[in-house]
Amino acid sequence: MKQMKEYxxxxxxxxxFKLGLALAMxxxxxxxxxxxxxxxxxxxxxxxxxxxxxxxxxxxxxxSVRKDDKQVNYDIEEYKPNK
Length: 83
Hints:
Helices cover 52% and strands 0% of the residues. It is mainly α.
């Protein structure tokens, strides 16, 4: 349960909004008619759960990065075997 709380704590407004749209469209599909609502519900729920955006064609699949995320740098050294 603690992991789920930590997971949802990192969500921003855009992810909550997409999830809300997915739920609204899912209810519209269940109580109404039209498969377009099912497609919209699946589309927005995948975007919210996996944190992806619509701009994958341009290489910008990820959404905004939190300011407190730190960049990790690795030093790569050449391997020199002992002979």
